[in-house]
Amino acid sequence: MDGSKKWGIIGPGKIAAKFAAALALTEGAELVAVASRSGERAREFAAKFGASRSFDHYWKLAAAPDIDAIYIATPHGFHCEHALLCLKHRKAVLCEKPMALSNRQVQEMVSASQDNKTFLMEAMWTRFLPLTGKLLELIGEGKIGKLKYVRADFGFAPPFNPEGRLYNKELGGGSLLDIGVYPLFLCQLLMGEPSRIMATAQLAPTGTDDSCVATLHYPDGGLAIMTSLYSCQTSITAEIAGTEGIIHIPTPWYKNDRLTLYRRGQEAEDFQFEPMVNGFEYQIRETLRCLDEGLIESPYLSHAFSLSMSRVMDAIRKQCGVYYPGE
Question: Strand 53-55 relative to strand 120-123: parallel, antiparallel, unpaired?
Answer without folding.
Answer: unpaired
